[in-house]
Design brief:
The complex is a heterodimer of chains A (about 850) and B (about 240). Chain A is an alpha/beta fold and about 850 residues long. In chain A, about 55% of the residues lie in helices and about 10% in strands. Chain A contains 32 helices and 13 strands. In chain B, the strands form two sheets. A seven-stranded mixed sheet of chain B has the order 5-4-3-6-7-8-9. In chain B, strands 1-2 form a two-stranded antiparallel ribbon. Chain B starts with a helix and ends in a 12-residue tail after the last strand. Classes of the chains: A alpha/beta (about 850), B alpha/beta (about 240).
Chain lengths: ~850, ~240
C-alpha cells in the first residue's frame, strides 16, 4: 500500500518537511487544553449556573475556529517563524488560561437579565471573547503544527488526541486533590511547560528563554487565590445565605462533582421544611445548610439520640407514604444532608439504606457535622452508600417497603428550568421498572417534587409510572397511583399492588389533618380535589384524570397540553424539560406579564448557544475563504504549491475543482460526527458505568486515545481507500451499537466495576480506532493539493464541533440518543463521499 | 463684578430648581406610562386574577411613589420599565406588575396594620403606606435595612416602622396584622406569622426566585381562625389547547 507520506517524500518536500514535528509538545498542550475545558466548566458552574457555564464555554471554544482563520490569513508568516509561533502560542495559552478566568468572572454577567438589560448581552459577548483567547492560542499552536509539519500529520494528530485523552484524567485527578482554582493555575502552568518542551523538540533551545518560560510557569502555578478563586454570582443561594448576619462557612470540600460548602447560622438559623403543613406550629430545629456549587441547599438537621426525632418531618407531603404503607425497610435515593433518612426513622422505619452520589456530602455529615446530626449516618439502623442511585438499585438484590426519591434540586433551580438539559436516569420509564422490581409485594415508590403551576413534574411522573407499571404487566396501572399536593410540594406514591380501601382511607385522613389536597386516587371525586390549597380550576385533578382514564384520552391530552409531559426514557432522559416548542412564542410574548418564570432557561440557553455558534461559525469559515479567494482563485491552472501542473486545467478530472466546498463538507461532517458519537456514548455509558465521572473519564480517554492510535496507524494506508473503509466500519459499528448496546449493557450491569470498564473499552476501541483515520487523511490530501486550505480546514473542524455540541443535545432531546448516533453514522458516509483527495491521480489517492 | 455674582448664583439655583422640576415631571410621566402598561397587563390576565382592574387606590399609590428613588442610581433609567431591577446584595425590587397585583390582593383598608417580611428597597412598604396602612417591615440583610431606613426617611415615609432581624418570628409586639406580605419565604410559611395574622386577615407569599415570581400563594384566616390557601398564577397562560 502506497502511503501519502511516501508521496510527500518523493517530490513535494517543502520547508515544513524539514521541521521535526513537536509531538510531545502537542500532546502536552492538548492535555492541558482538555483539562482546562473541564476545569473552566467546573469553575463557571460555581460562579454562574451549570448551563450558563456550558453556553459560555461552548462559544469560547470557537477560539479554535478563529485560530483556523488567523492561520489561513497569516500562513506565510507562520511557515517562516513556526518555532516562535508554536512556542509563543503555547506559552500564551498557559498565561491567558488563568488570566481569562480571572478577568471573565469579574464581568458581573447576570444571565437572568439577558432579556431586558442591554448591558448583559454586551457583557456576555465580552465574556465569550475573553474566554476564547486561551483556546485561540492553543488551537493556533496545534493548527500551525498540523499545517506546517507536512508528512507528520498522522503522528501529530495522534499526539493531539492521546494528549487530550490524558487531559480528561488529569482534570479529574487535579480536582480530586486540589481546589478548582489551584487546579486551574496548575493547568495553566502545564500549558507553559508544553511550550518549554516544544522549544527543545523544535531545535536547540537557548537557556535564557527556557529559564524565562520556566519562571512564567512557576508564576502561573502560584497565581494568588484572590485573583482566581471563584466568586459566585450574588444571586446564587450560597451568596444570599452568607449575607444574612450570623452566617458562617463551617466546612468546605471540593471535588470533581462540585464544591460543597457547609453554612451554619446560630443567630438566624436555617429552617428548611419544604411545603410544611399550615396545620402545625412546630418549629424545625436548627439546621446547617450544604450548598453544592453555591446552589441548593440540602440541610443537616440538629438531632440528638437521647431526644425524640424532629416532629415537623411528619407534616410534609413526603410523609404521606409512611401514613399509607407503614414501611419498615426504606431506601432513600439522594440522601444529601439526611432529611429523608431522619424522616424515615421518625416515622417508624426499622432500617434505612441511603444512597448519595457525592462522597464529600457524606463525609461532612459523618465527619465534622456528625455530632450536630446526632451521628445520623453512623447509626446501626442506617446504611449509607456513596454511589449513583440507579446503579446502586440495579446492583442490589434487596427489596424495600418504600423507595423514596428525594427533592434533589433547589426550588430556584427547578423553577427556573435550569435542569432542562440535565440528563437524569433516575426518572425514566426503565428506572421506574427497576424500582418496582425492588419493592416488597406491599411496597411503594415515592417521589416528592416542587409544585408547579400549571402542573408539569407531577404529570410527567404519573405518566412515567403508568408506562412502567404497564411494562411490568400490571393490567390497571392507574389503580396503583396516589397523588397529593400541598401549597408548595406534591408527592406521588406508586404502589406495587393496587391501592386498598384501607390505604385510601389512611391517605384521606393524612391529608385532612394537614390541609393537603388529594390530587389522585382510584375513584377520587372532583369535590375532594380542591379543598385546602385552592386553585382557580382543579388542574391537577383534571390532568391526572385525563392521564389515567384511558390510553386514548392520555394520548389526546399529551398532544393538546402545551407542556411536554410525555415520559422520559433511557434514550431521551430529559425529565426536566417541559417547555414545548409550540408554547415558546406564547410564553416569550407573556414574559412581562408573569410568563418569565415559565420560560425554561436550560432549553433557551441551548437554542441560544446553537444560534450563536452557527452565526459565528459561518463568519469564521467564510471570512478567510473570501481572503483566500482574493489571493488565489480556485483554478486548476494555478498550482503554486500543489501536486499537479497547469495542464490539469484541461483535464475533466481536475482534483482541485470544488476542493473548498468538498473540504468544507468533509471537515465539518467529521467534526460533527466525531463529537456526536462522543456525546452519545458518554450519555449511554453514564448508566452502564453508574457514575457520571467514570463515564466522562472512560469515554473521553477511551475515545481519544484509541482514535489517536488509529491516526498513528493510518499513515501506512492510502487516503481515499482508508477513509472509505473507516467510514464504512464506523457506520456499521454505530448502527449495531445503537440498537444492541442498551440490551447488552443491561445484561452486563451486574458485572463488577472493573469488568464494566473493560467492556466499555472493548466496545469503544474498534469504533474510536476507525474514527481516528479520516481527519489526518483529509489533511494530508489537502497538504498535497492545496496547503493553504489546511489551517482553514482545521478551523472548520473546530467550528463544526462547537455547533454539534449544542445541536446534538437538541437532537437527543427531541429524537433520542439513538438518533444522534445514527446521524453521526450518516455523516461519516457523507464525509467519505466528500474526501478531498477523491479523483486524485498522484499521491496515493483511491 | 461684585453685583453680578449674586445674580449668577440666583440663576444657577433657579436653573437647578427648573431642572429638578423637569426631572420630576419626566419621572411622573414615566410612572403614568408604567401604570398604563400594567393596566393593560391586568386586563390581559383578568381571567387568572378574577378582576378586570385593580382598586383605584392601588393605582393612585403607584402614581405617588417615586420608584426611581428605590433603585441604585445606575438603574434609575429603567426604574419604570415593567421588570424587576437589581438593588444589590443579591436582591431585586419586584416587577411593578407583581407589586400592583400583590397590593391589590391584600385588600387592605386605610388604617389596616400590615407586616412585610423582606423590606428590600422599601418600595413595597412605601406603596402600602400610600394606601394609608400602618406598615411594619423586617429585613434580614443589615445593609439593605440601613439603606431602606435612610431612603424612606428621606422621602418622608416616616410612618413606616422598620426592623433588622429574622422575619421568622414576625413582630409579636405589634401583632395582630390585617395583612402580611412574605417576600422572603424559605421553604415554609413560618407558624409564628400565621399566629400573628388577624382573623379575617390575609397573607401573600410570592413563590419563585429573585427575578421571577412563579405564582402567588394567598393564605386566608377565617373569622373563626381556620386557614385556607389559594394559588394565583399571575399570567394568562392556558396550558390546554383546543376544545375538551
Amino acid at each position: 500500500m502506497r502511503t501519502e507520506a511516501d508521496s510527500a517524500r518523493r517530490g513535494h518536500r517543502t520547508a515544513g518537511d524539514a521541521l521535526r514535528a513537536p509531538r510531545i509538545g502537542v500532546g502536552l498542550l492538548s492535555s492541558a487544553v482538555l483539562a482546562y475545558e473541564v476545569l473552566l466548566t467546573r469553575l463557571f458552574s460555581i460562579v454562574l449556573w451549570h448551563h450558563f457555564a456550558y453556553m459560555v464555554i461552548s462559544l469560547a471554544l470557537l477560539g479554535y475556529g478563529a485560530s483556523g482563520s488567523a492561520l489561513t490569513l497569516c500562513r506565510g508568516a507562520v511557515e517562516k517563524r513556526f518555532r516562535v509561533v508554536f512556542v509563543g502560542a503555547a506559552a500564551l495559552f498557559g498565561v491567558t488560561s488563568v488570566g481569562a478566568f480571572a478577568v471573565g468572572q469579574r464581568l458581573s454577567f447576570n444571565p437572568f437579565e439577558l432579556l431586558w438589560a442591554p448591558a448583559q448581552p454586551a457583557r456576555l459577548l465580552l465574556l465569550y471573547a475573553i474566554l476564547a483567547v486561551p483556546f485561540f492560542f492553543a488551537a493556533t499552536a496545534i493548527g500551525a503544527a498540523l499545517s506546517v509539519c507536512r508528512g507528520g500529520v498522522s503522528a501529530l494528530y495522534a499526539a493531539d488526541l492521546c494528549g487530550a485523552g490524558a487531559g480528561s484524567l488529569v482534570a479529574i485527578a487535579l480536582l480530586t486533590v486540589a481546589s478548582p482554582h489551584r487546579a486551574l493555575a496548575l493547568i495553566g502552568a502545564g500549558g507553559v511547560l508544553a511550550a518549554v518542551v516544544a522549544a527543545r523538540e523544535l531545535g536547540r533551545a537557548r537557556a535564557a528563554p527556557t529559564v524565562v518560560l520556566a519562571a512564567v510557569a512557576l508564576a502561573v502555578a502560584l497565581a494568588p487565590a484572590s485573583w482566581i478563586a471563584p466568586r459566585p454570582s450574588q444571586y446564587k443561594a450560597l451568596s444570599q445565605a452568607l449575607r444574612v448576619s450570623g452566617a458562617e462557612v463551617v466546612a468546605e470540600r471540593s471535588g470533581p462533582l462540585g464544591l460543597v460548602t457547609a453554612v451554619a447560622n446560630h443567630k438566624i438559623p436555617f429552617r428548611q421544611a419544604p411545603g410544611m403543613s399550615l396545620a402545625t406550629a412546630i418549629e424545625p430545629p436548627e439546621q446547617i445548610a450544604l450548598f453544592t456549587d453555591g446552589e441548593g441547599p440540602t440541610v443537616v438537621t440538629r438531632s440528638d439520640l437521647r431526644e425524640p426525632l424532629p416532629e415537623y418531618l411528619a407534616y410534609l407531603t413526603s410523609a404521606m407514604p409512611y401514613a399509607v404503607l407503614k414501611p419498615r425497610s426504606v431506601l432513600v435515593l439522594g440522601a444529601g444532608g439526611g432529611s429523608d433518612v431522619l424522616q424515615a426513622l421518625r416515622l417508624g422505619a426499622r432500617g434505612v439504606d441511603a444512597v448519595e452520589l457525592n462522597r464529600h456530602v457524606v463525609e461532612l455529615v459523618s465527619g465534622e457535622l456528625a455530632g450536630f446530626s446526632g451521628q445520623l449516618y453512623g447509626r446501626r439502623d442506617v446504611t449509607i452508600s456513596v454511589a449513583e442511585a440507579r446503579g446502586f438499585v440495579a446492583a442490589s438484590s434487596k427489596r424495600y417497603d418504600l423507595i423514596q426519591v428525594s427533592l434533589l434540586d433547589s426550588f430556584a433551580v427547578a423553577g427556573g428550568g435550569l435542569y432542562a438539559l440535565h440528563e437524569s436516569y433516575l426518572y425514566t420509564v426503565e428506572a421506574f421498572e427497576l424500582y418496582l422490581q425492588h419493592l416488597t409485594p406491599g411496597g411503594g415508590l415515592a417521589i416528592t417534587r416542587w409544585l408547579s403551576l400549571p402542573p408539569r413534574d407531577t404529570l410527567k411522573l404519573a405518566n412515567t409510572a403508568i408506562q412502567a407499571l404497564a411494562r411490568c404487566g400490571l393490567p390497571a396501572p392507574a389503580r396503583h397511583l396516589l397523588v397529593i399536593r400541598g401549597w408548595q410540594t406534591t408527592t406521588i406514591l406508586v404502589l406495587a399492588r393496587p391501592a386498598t380501601s384501607d390505604q385510601i382511607a389512611r391517605l384521606k385522613t393524612f391529608c385532612a389533618e394537614r390541609y393537603f389536597d388529594l390530587a389522585y386516587y382510584p375513584g377520587i371525586a372532583l369535590a375532594e380535589a380542591n379543598r385546602f390549597n385552592v386553585l382557580d380550576t382543579p388542574v391537577y385533578f383534571e390532568a391526572l384524570q385525563e392521564l389515567t382514564v384511558s390510553a386514548h384520552r392520555r394520548e389526546v391530552f399529551l398532544q393538546r397540553y402545551k407542556f411536554f409531559v410525555a415520559p422520559a426514557t433511557d434514550d431521551r432522559p430529559y425529565f426536566f424539560r417541559f417547555l414545548g416548542l409550540r408554547a415558546l412564542p406564547e410564553l416569550f410574548a407573556l414574559r412581562a406579564r408573569g410568563g418569565m418564570a415559565m420560560l425554561e432557561w436550560g432549553y433557551l440557553v441551548l437554542l441560544g448557544t446553537l444560534a450563536q455558534a452557527l452565526l459565528l461559525s459561518v463568519a469564521l469559515i467564510l471570512l478567510p475563504l473570501l481572503a483566500l479567494r482574493r489571493r488565489a482563485p480556485e483554478r486548476c491552472d494555478e498550482r503554486r504549491d500543489g501536486v499537479t501542473g497547469a495542464a490539469d486545467a484541461l483535464r475533466p478530472s481536475c482534483p482541485t475543482r470544488g476542493l473548498r466546498a468538498r473540504s468544507l463538507g468533509y471537515f465539518a461532517a467529521l467534526g460533527a460526527a466525531f463529537l456526536s458519537l462522543e456525546i452519545a456514548f458518554m450519555q449511554k455509558l453514564i448508566l452502564f458505568l453508574s457514575h457520571p465521572l467514570h463515564a466522562t473519564a472512560v469515554v473521553l480517554t477511551g475515545f481519544l486515545v484509541f482514535a489517536g492510535i488509529g491516526s498513528a496507524c493510518s499513515r501506512r494506508w492510502s487516503g481515499g481507500h482508508a477513509v472509505a473503509m473507516a467510514a464504512a466500519g464506523i457506520s456499521a459499528l454505530t448502527a449495531v451499537y445503537a440498537f444492541a448496546l442498551p440490551a447488552a449493557f443491561s445484561r452486563l450491569l451486574a458485572l463488577p466495576e472493573a469488568g464494566r470498564i473493560a467492556v466499555t473499552f472493548a466496545v469503544l476501541a474498534p469504533l474510536a480506532f476507525l474514527m481516528g483515520i479520516p481527519f489526518p487523511k483529509g489533511l494530508e490530501a489537502l497538504q498535497r493539493l492545496r496547503p493553504a486550505l489546511v489551517p482553514w480546514a482545521w478551523g472548520v473542524n473546530g467550528c463544526a464541533s462547537v455547533v454539534t455540541a449544542a445541536g446534538s443535545t437538541l437532537v437527543a432531546i427531541h429524537a433520542g440518543h439513538r438518533a444522534v448516533m445514527l446521524g453521526a453514522a450518516i455523516l461519516y458516509g457523507i464525509a467519505a463521499a466528500l474526501y478531498p483527495g477523491r479523483g486524485q491521480t498522484s499521491g496515493g489517492g483511491a | 463684578m461684585r453685583s453680578v455674582a449674586p445674580l449668577l448664583l440666583l440663576a444657577a439655583v433657579a436653573a437647578a430648581i427648573v431642572a429638578d422640576a423637569a426631572d420630576d415631571g419626566e419621572y411622573a410621566a414615566r410612572r403614568r406610562a408604567m401604570i398604563a402598561e400594567i393596566k393593560v397587563d391586568v386586563v390581559a390576565t383578568a381571567e387568572m386574577l378574577k378582576r378586570e382592574s385593580l382598586d383605584a387606590r392601588v393605582w393612585a399609590a403607584l402614581e405617588r411613589v417615586p420608584r426611581h428613588e428605590f433603585v441604585p442610581p445606575e438603574e434609575q433609567a429603567v426604574a419604570y420599565e415593567n421588570r424587576p431591577v437589581s438593588i444589590g446584595h443579591g436582591q431585586t425590587i419586584s416587577q411593578p406588575y407583581i407589586v400592583a397585583i400583590m397590593t391589590d390582593l391584600l385588600n387592605l383598608r386605610a388604617g389596616a396594620r400590615v407586616l412585610e417580611v423582606g423590606t428590600g428597597s422599601g418600595y413595597q412598604a412605601a406603596v402600602l403606606a400610600e394606601l394609608g396602612c400602618r406598615v411594619f417591615s423586617i429585613e434580614i440583610i443589615e445593609p439593605l435595612h440601613a439603606e431602606a431606613r435612610e431612603r424612606l426617611s428621606r422621602l418622608g415615609f416616616d410612618g413606616i416602622r422598620l426592623r433588622h432581624g429574622d422575619g421568622y418570628y414576625g413582630w409579636k409586639e405589634e401583632a395582630p396584622f390585617d395583612g402580611i406580605l412574605v417576600t422572603a419565604a424559605a421553604g415554609q410559611i413560618p407558624p409564628p406569622l400565621l399566629v400573628q395574622l388577624a382573623p379575617g386577615g390575609r397573607m401573600i407569599i410570592p413563590v419563585g426566585s429573585s427575578f421571577f415570581v412563579q405564582d402567588l400563594v394567598i393564605v386566608d384566616k377565617t373569622k373563626t381562625g381556620e386557614l385556607r390557601t389559594r394559588q394565583v398564577l399571575p399570567v394568562s397562560f392556558v396550558p390546554l389547547t383546543g376544545a375538551h
